[in-house]
Design brief:
Number of strands: 11
Low-confidence stretches: none
CATH topology of the largest domain: SH3 type barrels
Distance between the termini: 68 Å
Radius of gyration: 29 Å
Strand order of the largest sheet: 6-5-4-3-7
Largest sheet: 5 strands, antiparallel
Oligomer: single chain
CATH architecture of the largest domain: Roll
Helix content: 25-40%
């Protein structure tokens, strides 16, 4: 029997005892469709591991708690569930940013302290069996993410001093925060920008100073994060979405067809083993960088503006390497 099934049986035993039904092994085995031996093993687990004050009432023919105030531990997990949690901690430390390392370690200690069973999984043991290679990310302060989170929940405006990397300048902006999302370890804020009078995406790592203001704002009920993200490619949303068409040769097609690159994507298989990838996005600069990473294995067929931008970039590269 799995740990999950045992947990469900223990919860049922506890429920019947608290309902003063005085359950016994024979009746529980029949109701739960297991052997009486299994029920006795569950009872022994409750006594030995969970320190349950179980006793047998001969007159009523069943079990009861000698201490009616005793309660099951708040944390009852199987080994697989605990392993999954600890793995998620390792992933979070690397992909959500080091700002959360302290709170994550604190959570691990609290959960470990609350366990009443002998199931133990340590982060040190996990690191000997699993490797997580973190991407290069821009560090973000934990305080910033927490305050942005609260501002989103309370619909409070935020004044930020923001560094725009593309223009190499710093500006003070007032924004209305809508959503935080994490992409490959980097944090981004989707917010209405008072300066541009439109929704914008801000890299949280480039927010140098911030202040949550007392002014509240009303969220646009027509705004959909899903639709907003569907028009982006990776982290860049750009302007109005256009159809992007890219041809991959047979070699690169083996790897392209393995993954989902965009919510709107369509793949057309070619007779030679290559493929054509189609999707709609406004983030053409990001697409340009992505496609060029495949070198001669990829060719942009549309839009013509993207094709021309890549052609010009290749010419500049040729000058450098001539």
């Amino acid at each position: 029997m799995s740990g999950r099934q045992q947990l469900e049986r223990i919860l049922e035993i506890d429920r019947q005892i608290r309902a003063l039904k005085y359950p016994n092994a024979r009746r529980l085995a029949r109701e739960l469709e297991v052997s009486e031996r299994t029920i006795y093993q569950d009872r022994q687990f409750m006594v030995d591991r969970l320190r349950a004050p179980l006793a047998y009432d001969r007159r009523r023919g069943g079990w009861y708690y000698t201490d009616p105030n005793w309660a099951l531990p708040s944390v009852l997990v199987t080994e697989g569930e605990l392993l999954a949690f600890f793995l998620s901690v390792e992933v979070a430390r690397r992909y959500l940013g080091t700002a959360f390392e302290g709170p994550l370690c604190s959570a691990v200690e609290k959960i470990t302290a609350g366990l009443k069973s002998q199931i133990q999984v340590s982060l040190g043991d996990l690191r000997a069996c699993y490797i997580f290679a973190p991407p290069p990310v821009v560090s973000v302060k934990e305080e910033l993410l927490l305050e942005l989170h609260r501002a989103i929940q309370c619909c409070r405006q935020v004044k930020i001093r923001y560094y725009t990397a593309s223009r190499g300048c710093r500006q003070v902006r007032v924004v209305e925060p809508y959503h935080l999302y994490n992409l490959r370890g980097d944090w981004y804020l989707i917010a209405f920008d008072h300066l541009r009078r439109d929704m914008r995406t801000f890299h949280a790592g480039r927010i140098e100073e911030w202040e949550v203001l007392n002014q509240e704002f009303k969220r646009d009920p027509g705004f959909s994060v899903g639709k907003w993200m569907a028009q982006a490619f990776v982290a860049e949303r750009g302007e109005e979405p256009v159809e992007v068409v890219i041809k991959f040769d047979p070699y690169q097609a083996r790897y392209i067809r393995e993954r989902s690159w965009h919510p709107s994507q369509e793949i057309e298989e070619l007779p030679d083993g290559g493929l054509i990838l189609r999707f709609f996005t406004g983030g053409l600069d990001e697409v340009k960088r992505w496609v060029m990473g495949y070198g001669s294995h990829a060719e942009v067929l549309a839009p013509e503006s993207l094709r021309q931008a890549i052609r010009e970039e290749i010419q500049k590269m040729a000058q450098i390497y001539r």
